Amino acid sequence: MKKFIETLKNIYKIEDLRARLGLSLFLLLIYRLGSYVALPGIDPAQLGQLKQQTSDGLLGLLDMFSGGAFSNASVFALGIMPYISASIVIQLLGIAVPYFQRLQKEGESGRRKINQITRYLTVLILLFQAPAYLANLTFQLPAEAFAVSGWMFKVTSTIILTAGSMFIMWLGERITDKGIGNGISLIIMIGIIARLPFAVFAEFISRIEQQGGGMVMFLVEFVFLFVIFMGSILLVQGTRRIPVQYAKRIVGNKQYGGVRQYIPLKVNAAGVMPIIFAQAIMFVPISLAGFTSSDSMSGFASAMSNHTGFWYNFSQFALVVLFTYFYTAITVNPVQMAEDMKKNGGFIPGVKPGKKTVEFLDTVMSRITLPGSIFLGIVTILPAFAMMAGINTQFAYFYGGTSLLILVGVVLDTLQQIESHLLMRHYDGLMKSGRIKGRAGGGAAMY
Fold first, then answer.
1. Which candidate in 55, 94, 192, 407 could, as Cys together with 100 as Cys, close a disulfide (CB 3.0–4.6 Å)?
2. 8 A C-beta contact, residue 12 and residue 18
């Protein structure tokens, strides 16, 4: 406790860090307040059916990521997810399309162009998602919930929803530039954390009044949650360090190279992307079942929508493992790594430069990705085991899946930046020994 108080004092002493933290908290507060501002023309008291619809399934996850704005019919209802979808598309295009590959290599100017294209694509996605969201509102809510209806309501609400998501994107960029941490990731994390108190309270009431077990079972659940968080931190932080030796070079009176450095290869280089892809694929059978009356198709869709069923969890586990290998293969390029080492006069001790280095890096990545993918698959299906143990659905989401990995990753990334500010000004870090390492690339960090 004394160490914690001392760290807070050190943070307060650094004016730049204090200002960055204050700005970040202020902008996050604006985001949270906006999630309670309902769309003009909608009676907030009539949103009970919408909240019931978003209590489970894919819509429940969307509501969690938006911090409840989705079920509140808020001006921020679509949240930051359209921007993330656009970012994923641009990232995949950067692997397959030469134009985007050139932009990625152009440095700061290329990055600005990519950001501009991502924003345009975000607006395009919003122009499709906003009318779909409004159509769902019209279907779910009673007619008396709408003070205004017709095409005027749809047009104005589409503009408001689009502007709301773009404003959230702007808040995230301001936090990244002027605040502390990755702004987009922090906005998602705050949305997830905002649901935690309600989920904990609901679970507490359930254990005390309904399912039984009392405080003992409630505390046991938190012990298991703590263990799962520790395991997730190991997954996010786990790396295999590849030694790289650089040849000595003498330029003028100075000597360069001759030192050994390391390439940290992440055990989970794909981050949360495999889970996002798997969940999107799992939603396809349910969508297809809506267009057919076939009993076999309906039965298959029913099995795929049962979150505690065997086939749903087995399929999701297998998809996460496959997508982990796929996403790692397209984001980690051994050929590029070997070329960069060769250009800088570096080599892996005991491995010949060139093709042998590529084969060595590829073999190492394949071996460490296997346990990483299995562990990630287990984390994905942990909420199902939590539900089968009697934990309510809202609280069970915090036992695994995308929400857990985002929470762990964003917190570690933000703490690492705070620690860097402290160490740069010759203060002690956040830990008594060792340092906090940043989280896995390619996951939520790409927002």
1. 94
2. yes
